[in-house]
Amino acid sequence: MKTITKVKQLLVLAVIVASTMGVSHAQTTMYSTNWNDGYENWMVSSATSGTVQWDNRGGGDGIQATNTQDTQSEEWIVSPEFDFSNGSTFTLSFVAAQADNGSPAGKLDVYYTENWGSDGTGATWTSLELDITNGYSVGWNGGAGYVSSSYVMPSTSATVRIAFKYTSEGWTDPNNTPEDNTDDENRNRIRVKDLTLTTSGSVTEWPLPYAAAWANDLEDWTVVSNVHATKEWAYKAAATVFMTDGKRDQDDWLISPKVICSSSKQKQISFLAGWKNFQSSNISLYYSTDYDGDQAAATWIKISENIIPDTHGFGFATSLLYSYSHTMDLQADAVTFAIQYAPYKAYGDSQNEIRIKNFKVEEATPTNLNDKELLAVEVYPNPTRDMLNISIDGKAHAEIYNLAGQLVKKAPINNKQVNVSELTVGQYIIMVKQDEKVSVTKFIKK
Fold first, then answer.
1. Of 199, 223, 239, which one is at a domain's C-terminal end?
2. How does DSSP assign 368-404, residue by residue?
3. Mean per-residue pLDDT for 259-273?
4. Which of 187, 238, 288, 351 could form a disulfide with 298 if both were Cys (CB 3.0 to 4.6 A apart)?
5. Which of 37, 103, 41, 111 is nearest to 74 (CA)?
6. 170 plus 224 within the same structural domain
7. Which is it for strands 437-445 and 426-434: parallel, antiparallel or unpaired?
8. What is the value of pTM for the model shown?
């Protein structure tokens, strides 16, 4: 296996069990992802140059590997780092399916390592299961073709990473045309989605990046109802919570576990929010560095008030939700965040419901653009081996980052081109800057 780009951030997810004036549940979901918003700090690597890497599908389809080129491929996708050292039982669960060839023409293996080190060089991989797709039926079948897998992780290490490895099998190259997909007689695709890590234990703080699981309930978040406890924050669906005012003057708080924000980098808080009707209720976001189980006694610092704009429409489809993102200076060993549901106008006779989805806190990266004006540029060819063409006039410069957010190249754009020949094979993000405008594009270096 070739060296895989190292991740700067650790993802060691843990839990807090808290209660005050409301309901709280013991945390069971340690980590969950469907890779809908990108690779979620997972690292992709091809052991064979020029083959097709793992791709995040979006739309609930997870990640996919495929052997669409006429060469045998070995594609890896490696997780962030997890801490399994507290003696609890940890379980890895996911669903997978294959399409196009049932012979099979590809296989999926699951591994873990305890000695990743600084960049993965020399990591020792232990197999959880080999060729778990052998015998799978062919086709996604609208979800019916997916098979659930679950493995108890035997490790007790504080430095555990999990990997999926796709290896193409039975590949042929009848006419020696490696760029020609039409003669691939053993086409195969494998998808993995709905990955979760669960734990039987709990600890007290979550390092960054933090994502609220809300897989089956509110889990480690705490509800505080200061007015009418008959209507309070509750679990709605995967990664989603909701609050209904019941035509009452509510003051309800949804309080996170403690999150470690000790790095000097800026922090970005983001989530989706929507409402059923535009009425008098809204949500505000706060944080506290001294919350210790008593909402009223804590010092709460307001981040944003009345977050959903008056002009925003109604509806709970993901495409209709308001996308909130705020980047700020925030450095503390333990930070608690809170979403407050409260009136901001005189109440009428109508009831309103508000939902929150995909709450995240992470270190801000160069791709967190916030309010910058976007450039409309084209970056091509993609993939490329040496030169990237940039369709921009005038002076501009480029910054190139790996998927861990590390700056790997910075250069002026000369003659509408940037030379990337010295980069290693993999996926990158190029940020084109001109005055106060910015463009961000992902590209593949072959």
1. 199
2. --TTPEEP---EESSSBSSEEEE---SS-EEEEEETT
3. 89
4. 288
5. 111
6. no
7. antiparallel
8. 0.51
**CB-CB contact of 224 with 20 (8 Å):** yes
Residues of the domain holding 111: 29-199
d(CA 33, CA 84): 18
Neighbours of 254 (CB within 10 A): 24
Number of H helices, E strands in the chain: 0, 31
The answer to whether residue 412 sits within a structural domain is yes
| Domain harbouring 138, CATH code | 2.60.120.200
> Tell me: the pLDDT tens digits for 145-155?
888 888 988 88
Asked whether residue 7 is assigned to any structural domain, the reply reads: no
Question: Reduced to 3 states, what is the DSSP secondary structure of residue 310?
Answer: coil
The pair of three-digit structure tokens given for residue 25, joined into one six-digit string? 């549940």
Q: What is the pLDDT of residues 210-233, one digit of tens each?
A: 888 787 788 789 999 988 777 889
Strand runs labelled E in 262-396: 267-275, 281-288, 301-304, 322-328, 332-343, 353-363, 373-374, 379-380, 387-390
Among 5-9, 174-178, 431-435, which range has the highest average pLDDT? 431-435
What whole-number distance in Å separates Cα of residue 43 and Cα of residue 11?
13
DSSP string spanning 14-74?
------SSS------EEEEE--TTS-TT-EEEESSTTSPPPEE--TT--EEEE--SSS--E
In the block, which residue shows the tokens 């073709």?
145
Residue where a domain terminates, one of 150, 173, 199: 199
Q: Dig out the tokens for 382 from the structure.
A: 């993609």
Instruction: Kindly state the average pLDDT of the residues 395-419.
Output: 83
Q: How many CA atoms lie within 13 A of 229 on its CB side?
A: 6
Q: Coil, strand, or helix at residue 319? A: helix
Do residues 193 and 210 share a domain?
no
Residue 241 has pLDDT above 50, yes or no: yes
Residue 340 contacts residue 284 (beta carbons within 8 Å): yes
Q: Looking at residue 435, which CATH number applies to its domain?
A: 2.60.40.3080
Give Rg (Cα) of the chain: 24
Count of domains forming the chain: 3
Does 19 map to a domain?
A: no
Say if residue 126 is in the same domain as residue 214.
no
